[in-house]
Design a protein that fits this description.
The chain is an alpha/beta fold. Helix content is 24%, strand content 25%. The strands form 3 sheets. It has a 6-stranded mixed beta sheet, with helices on one face.
Length: 281
């Protein structure tokens, strides 16, 4: 009888762990990044979103939009694959329409925008909401008395044939990064880039912070033992699946994305990323 009770308890524990591991409750992950390039006592709050793939949360995206509003961002930064090439665009449209009243919004492409039938029409639709689409461009913004430069590099798929599984040219992508080498060194610079696996290439250029997605958190995560099982562009046991990564001069934050679909996510809930930039000068 005792063994049966132990077995039952063990099975219940395993069931509980299994249920917890696949829970898909929208979560918020918060990072603080300090820099001497920012005035002491000043703070800029960024919300970064990636990899929605037109997924819908609750009724008309209200749980997602409300969570973004509650975070009280100064800027909302969208790092690609918000629109999906195979799913209806309604989920993306609801999000984009709902966030523009919260804070200024900036967008860069992912591979799935370029795999859609007419990518330029997709970007025009995004811009029509009042969202700035950065296509290998930069823009200086002033927030809370802090001057930032926002840069956006198009996904490598922009140089491909714009069909599924065409990831484009690595050399073309790196050449676009080189176009930012004249950034003023005294200004704090944020790069929006869908692909996290180019970490070393980003670090070779004058970016202070890089925000990325694409890896979907590596799908299966077992913190602290496994920071992701598999990710596109990185294969098994990806190095840049989700979280914060640093060099002496640059920080990269990789969001685990928002999509909830047929691909199982273990210990890897959909997330919005909140980044507080704080001055240390």
């Amino acid at each position: 009888m005792k063994h049966k009770r132990l077995l039952s308890a063990g099975l219940l524990c395993l069931l509980g762990i299994g249920i917890a591991s696949v829970q898909c409750v929208l979560t918020e992950r918060h990072y603080i990044v300090t820099s001497s390039k920012l005035p002491a006592g000043k703070r800029v709050r960024l919300v970064m979103l990636s990899d929605l793939h037109s997924c819908v949360f609750g009724k008309d995206q209200s749980p997602l939009i409300n969570k973004i509003r509650d975070a009280d961002p100064d800027l909302i930064l969208l790092c690609g694959d918000i629109v999906d090439d195979r799913q209806p665009t309604r989920g993306a449209a609801l999000l984009l329409k709902g966030i523009t009243e919260i804070a200024p919004c900036f967008y860069v492409s992912g591979n799935h925008e370029y795999w859609s039938a007419a990518p330029e029409n997709t970007f025009a639709s995004i811009a029509a909401y009042g969202i700035r689409v950065l296509q290998n461009e930069r823009e200086q913004v002033s927030v809370n008395g802090v001057e930032l430069i926002l840069c956006g590099v198009e996904d490598p798929a922009a140089s491909g044939v714009h069909k599924p599984h065409s990831y484009g040219s690595r050399d073309a992508y790196i050449s676009h990064l080189c176009a930012f080498d004249d950034l003023p060194p005294e200004r704090y610079t944020v790069l929006l880039a869908h692909r996290p696996e180019y970490f070393e290439e980003y670090a070779a250029h004058p970016f202070d912070l890089v925000l990325s997605g694409h890896a979907h958190g590596g799908q299966f995560r077992f913190p602290p033992l496994l920071n992701g099982l598999v990710a596109p562009g990185q294969g098994f046991f990806p190095k840049y699946a989700g979280g914060i990564y640093r060099t002496d001069s640059m920080v990269e934050i990789v969001g685990c994305g928002l999509v909830v679909d047929w691909r199982l996510r273990l210990f890897n809930p959909p997330e919005i990323v909140v980044v507080d930039l704080e001055g240390s000068a």
